[in-house]
Amino acid sequence: MKAHLNRFDFGLLLLYGLSFLLIWEWLRPVKELTETGNIGVFIVFVFIALLLSLLGVRAFAGFCIKSLYILYSVHSLYYQGSLLNFSWAGSFIKDLKANFGRIWNAQWIELDDVFRTLLFFTLLWIIAYLIQYWLITRKRIFVFFLMTLIFITVLDTFTPYDAYAAIIRTAIAGFLVMGMLTFYRLVEMENIKKSFIFTRKWMVPLAVMIALSSALGYAAPKAEPIWPDPVPFIKSFNSESGEGQAGIKRAGYGTDDSRLGGAFLGDDQVVFTTEIEEQHYWKVETKGIYTGKGWVADDERANTLDFSEGTVPPMLSFYDTVPSKKRTSTVHNVLDYSHIQYPHGVMNIETDDFYLYRLNQVTQKISSLKEFEDSAPDSYTVQYRSPSFQVKELQNSSAEEDENLSESILADYTQLPSNLPPTVKELALEVTEGKESWFDKAQAVEEYFRMNGFVYDQINAAMPGEDEDYVAQFLFETKRGYCDNFSTAMAVMLRTLDIPTRWVKGYTEGEYKETLKSGKMVYEVTNNNAHSWVEVYFPGVGWVPFEPTQGFSDNVTFEYEVESETSEDTEEEQQVAAEAPVKPEVETPVEAAGTTTSGSMASWFQNLKTLLSLNMKNVTISGVLLGGILAIIFLTRKKWLPFYYVTLFKMRQKEEHFPEAYRVLLMQLQRHGLKRGKDQTLREYAKYVDQFFSSRDMGQLTAQYEQFLYRGELKEGTWAEARPHWESLIKKAG
Amino acid sequence: MRSEMNPTIERILQNIEKVMTGKRNVAELSLVALLSGGHVLLEDVPGVGKTMMVRALAKSVSAEFRRIQFTPDLLPSDVTGVSIYNPREMEFQFRAGPIIGNIILADEINRTSPKTQSALLEGMEESSVTVDGVTHELESPFFVMATQNPIEYEGTYPLPEAQLDRFLLKMKMGYPDLDEEIEVLSRAQKVPPIDDLQPVVSLEELRKLKKEIKEVYVDDSIKRYIVDLASMTRVHSSVYLGVSPRGSISLMKASQALAFMSGRDFVIPDDVQYLAPFVFAHRIILKSEARFEGIEAEEVVNRVIARVPVPVQRLVK
């Protein structure tokens, strides 16, 4: 180990560098998948640990340096004041004590960040040591390499982590390390003096081979998997445990929408029940700023307006010019959210008690207050106007018409992130080609999601990677998702056309329960009914809801004037009208969730069946190929069996395995063409074999086997003594 | 097999080789018979060194050597001995015949009458002779090497099949090859070296060796192999009468001796295979058709060996 101190060993440096890369591959996903920030601190630690080992720093000095680094990192991450102040040491030690107590009580969840960081450092320390042990002492890294590959592929399959580049990096680094270690092992075993020429003779072909094969692997066409994706099937078995996983969400209303995407798990917790005259969506809030990953509210402008019961909420839904009917709905809260769910066009909120309401003017969120504290009324009644939007009006509406509002609304609701891929706009233009008015364009985009390969799927919804756009990923790559995908995509597409659009969150009407004597219908709204949709601003009309999500209908009425009707429009209207009463029941997310999870096994097999019947030719060819490969493997067994046996019997050290090994050898010799006549005694045969290989191994082996067979005794150490002869012979017979 | 001979045996064989040129296998087989308590039938022409071999063997093991030349007029009492009335002692005294010895060369055994033959054979089988109602135990070791001349059938009494069974081995000596014969001539010019031959082992040691041979391990798989060989001779198409269980026992005992001589304490199939033709051939009676076809018993035995698989795995009980 000390030898490398005298002379600079480039190979060793390279080995350490490559192992550092391999460990780094373990740390990369940690950043993406967990909430660990500052991953750099840990990478630097691994680097230091390996560097110390490379430089051959004494164990004690290394220990001190690493400990100091850990203390410094923990301090700078979690404590105030100077490191040398030592005032932080007290609280640090107190923390440690508390955490040890928690470990003792198995309260894993309550371990705090300081302690977790310390534990992680310790783990890395151990890994760095192990790597050094494997590299320098054992000169073997295969297990670690394999584990790294498995780790990365598993992450790639089951998490949003994209390991495309990681696999390539790992494969190259791993093979290089293995190739170099093999060289070092050979040099050591054969006692060759390491010379530059030797090293070059080995390293150049190694490098060329790895470069060629990785380039080939990279460039080669990769077939799509022909097997149905088993991941959702596996996940459905494990659905309960998914809660804590990164990237998987539970259905329900949440306030943070800054990172959308990922699988969505059903949750039938009832949020509220309603008594309604007419089906409608329940709004909670809207969001105006799209970040590329999700939606945020513009907090800087957040000013609130308070209003009391009996007054019209000071927000714009749509203008009075829009014909509407007055309706009333009653809400009975089950969960205590302090926000009010309200229908589009809300006019008044009433409770039995006295509540004050506070409207966030940016998000349109209405909070209920009692005695200046957030509080949810047990039940409340909302009066609202149920609009029938005049298509004629909408089609005539344009930016020029409403000068007061349009500018600020245009500015606020056509915001887009600067790094939005231009393909989104190109698609929007393509979809709306030939459409003049905003309304026609909006409808065209809404329609676009009905077909064109989009699939409603709560489970297999992707989460965009670091450099990906949520909408672009959905539109061009996955085409699979749930309401958030559809609504965000529509909103963003319309915004690329400079049509003011906002993203609305709330609930669907829920699940029908019964009809009361008063004629009102009772609905139950659960977390599964949480939903998102889109509102488009039309000057002179107001905000008009659109529903791009497949299988959902928002029951918004559009009235077409008879004169301006085209035959297409009529159909559309009829479709809307016809769909309205029937569809929502069938295709609520609850149902969707149910079919995807419980029915997934059956459907998986169904998929498999269809796949097989569709690809009968391929299956047959694969079958024949597989058979051929198996036949080749069988016919060439003479070549590979010896290696198998050598490995197999390496693990069989007991004496009683010797006769077995001998018989295996007999069989292998037979396969090699050295036939033993049935009347031929083992001795004669051994003589024959030894003559053939010009060796004496078989004679010695046979003498030992005879001892066992005809004397009935197996002396201690027979197998150990016979093993070299046996291995030499079975390899010769390969 | 010859590489790690038992050292005592090796010395005996080397001793014999001082007088005999070549023919090591004959000496070996003779020793096999001697050590396993059996007897040998040598079928050969005169003058190939049978007597010399037996005398050398006898001298090497310090055994008493006797030679009986069988003639048509030889009486059983000439073999076994007679009781003669001693007038001074007023009683019959037993005069021991030539059979009372350790190593006996029974030359041209087929020339004498069946009665005399059976007197010898009784002695061989029972290790005792009965003269005038008195049984005299023969001293161990008792080893008979009988010879018969295969060419002269005029005036001979061929040994009956039942009698042949009494011999452990039947073998041929054969002529020496060219070099050996030249060597024989060279030796003949000197003083016959047989007189200078020194014993290698005492009789006592020889008896001990015989005891050790009984301890040589015979695995069940080997026993099975021997029995398989024997029973195969019984069903062979050219065979009228196959090998008896006594033949199987003989083969096993001979194999034990050979294994011991080869420095082993267990029998291997090689021992059995090597000895089977010598032990079995004279115990088989071929069908007359086969005899007419010129098939010999040794050939049959070799065919049987070729057909019975050698045990290479432990016997599953």
From TrEMBL, chain A:
It comes from Mesobacillus foraminis. The keyword Magnesium does not apply. The chain crosses the membrane at residues 7-27, 39-65, 77-94, 114-135, 142-161, 167-187, 202-220, 619-636. Residues 563-574 have a biased composition (Acidic residues). InterPro entries: Bact_TGase-like, Papain-like_cys_pep_sf, TgpA-like_C, TgpA_N, Transglutaminase-like. GO terms for molecular function: peptidase activity. SUPFAM superfamilies: Cysteine proteinases. It comes from the Bacteria. Pfam families: DUF4129, TgpA_N, Transglut_core. Gene3D superfamilies: 3.10.620.30. Residues 475-550 form the Transglutaminase-like domain. One of its GO terms (biological process) is proteolysis. The lineage of its organism: Bacteria, Bacillati, Bacillota, Bacilli, Bacillales. Keywords: Hydrolase, Membrane, Protease, Transmembrane, Transmembrane helix. This is Transglutaminase-like putative cysteine protease. Residues 563-582 are annotated as: Disordered.
UniProtKB/TrEMBL annotation, chain B:
Keywords: ATP-binding, Nucleotide-binding. Residues 233-303 form the ChlI/MoxR AAA lid domain. It comes from Mesobacillus foraminis. This is MoxR-like ATPase. The keyword Glycoprotein does not apply. Belongs to the MoxR family. Residues 39-169 form the ATPase AAA-3 domain. It comes from the Bacteria. GO terms for molecular function: ATP binding; ATP hydrolysis activity. SUPFAM superfamilies: P-loop containing nucleoside triphosphate hydrolases.
